[in-house]
Predict the structure.
Amino acid sequence: MAATTLLIVESAAKAKTIGKFLGKGYTIKASVGHIKDLPKSKLGIDVDNNFEPRYITIRGKGTLLKEIKEEAQKASRVLLATDPDREGEAIAWHLQNAIKIPQGEKCRIEFNEITKDAVKSAIKNSRQVDMDRVNAQQARRVLDRLVGYNLSPLLWSKVRKGLSAGRVQSVVVRLICEREEEIRNFISEEYWTIEVVLATTDDQSFIARLSTKGDQKIEIGSEQQKDEIINSLGDSKLKVTKVEKKEKRKKAAPPFITSTLQQEAARRLNFYSKRTMKVAQELYEGLEIGKQGTVGLITYLRTDSTRVAGTAQMEALDYIRFQYGEQFAPNSPNEYKNKQGTQDAHEAIRPTSATRTPESVKQFLSRDQYRLYKLIWDRFIASQMTPAVYDTITVDIVAGDYGLRASSSQLKFAGYKKVYKDSEEEEIKNFIPQLKKGEEVFLQETRPEQHFTQPPPRFSEASLIKLLEEKNIGRPSTYAPIIDTILKRNYVERQNKQFAPTELGFIVVDLLKNNFNDIVDVEFTARMEENLDMVEEGEMNWTQVVDTFYRPFAADLEKASAMIEKVEIKDEEAGKDCPECGKAMLIKHGRFGKFMACSGFPDCRHTESLTEEVGVDCPLCGGAILALKSKKGRRFYGCSKYPDCQFRSWNKPIAEKCPTCGDILVEKQNRNKEIEAICHNPECKYSKEMRA
């Protein structure tokens, strides 16, 4: 019997991709994530014995683990090829123990991309399981269990059943609540800006803005002050004091890391982070690309490093020279600095081949896969291109005590912008005539404009992720599940793609701040992340990190359990009476979201769906279309004039009519899980792709 190697990965998709290029000498099995974890029914940690975790086989994984053990007995060699991060290292360690691979054996391999060369190179360079990395994962898991297992029952007894508290999620809710308080407490203030139209002696007009008084930046706080300045400008001679012409160079942004990919996908593609990570995982694990077979299209998606392998840089430069010309390729590859504390084990997120363009693979990808791959490919290629070059002109003009400034910026050479446009436009398209220092100009028109200061905006998904990364709260790979959890727990809601805290969110944050301040303290949470990094580097003992946290936490827990009184959460009034008994209807929270229920419960059990207008008129009668819930919790859309009007649809109507038959269009997910607009009329076959 020929010798075989058992290679264990995490997912079936990855197993399929790798199996196609490793050949007959290998058996590929997938662990389908973790095989061991702490039990759900009890703490599973011996706090009096160095916080020893009591791992058990995850329910439903017993048969799979048995199959893996049987394959391991048949194999001459076992290689653990789980993901190249802390979670992957922990899975490899649990597999090593379950299969009884001797400690110290070089059974662990990792690769940053699922390509034939990368996998074969990893097999040649196997290593021991990294126990420092495993211990960093154990510390995080134990900390999260100690917090969640102990605090969640406290919240159930004092606030409401079904709630949870988490080491990172609670800080995220606090940040959202504090932003809401800033908005509520914000006092708007009036201010003015003044733009002027100036002319040269030969009647060439240009625009400048009032910028200074003396050598101080000017602030105009009232209409009276604005009028005084305009009068003064009208009485003053205006003279050019400086003309500065410069060439400004702007470098491309670095290739994506996990957090920046989530931010840009939210801004440009309207993807939530959960959707971004799901699609990126598909691109990483491998897809069928015609004659190429199953191909991993991008490198590993969980990374905070902007480093790129030299071979990938050179391939990108060759492509840039061939496709765009020598002037778009720098003499040497562009390098980008990582932020302090970066784990540099992985590369940035990039395509596995620069020559595999988005258009060349488009026909094999779903719409979401194509759009995200194009974003990653464009950003990476742009990161290896020359800077964009602008011609800038700045003209300073003095008018008595006041200073005016005219600015212009014009793109001279596109550089990286040939491939990747920035979110913010750098060009200032303002015609400025030829001017010389000392030249007199003339005031033609003043254009004052009143403004009012605005409160800080609520967090969008992109701005929240940016803040979490800046403050070192959690890991970018955990942001999607954290956001998912705080939405499910009803601590926050999405309103116009921004996060708004609920009353419940405020109550839970206040309770935690008053009794467990470290749990919701931003700096404390960031220090814990730094400690976990130090464990991974072998600079701290993981049990020491846990012990430092747990001792004061346990004392706070004992005190809080005795002192905290039950919080009464008042239900919001719905603004209408019960049609059955006449008592007030209340807004309640159920498993399917908000609904209305009679305040006379349990004597009166009348409930109603909480209606929400979708902003589209009914095509049958002109009434408002409402979003409703069926008895089984499924969302549907019906007319506000029901039962007189019988319009209903399982698909969400949009404010657009079918160009073929005139009926309304509705959103529908096709077999590729892409959203299309289709005609509501079943006899009309019109459909079109929708922009996300």
Remarks:
- The domain at 5-129 is CATH 3.40.50.140 (Rossmann fold).
- The chain has a mean pLDDT of 91.
- Residues 131-158 form the longest helix (28 residues).
- The chain has 17 helices and 30 strands.
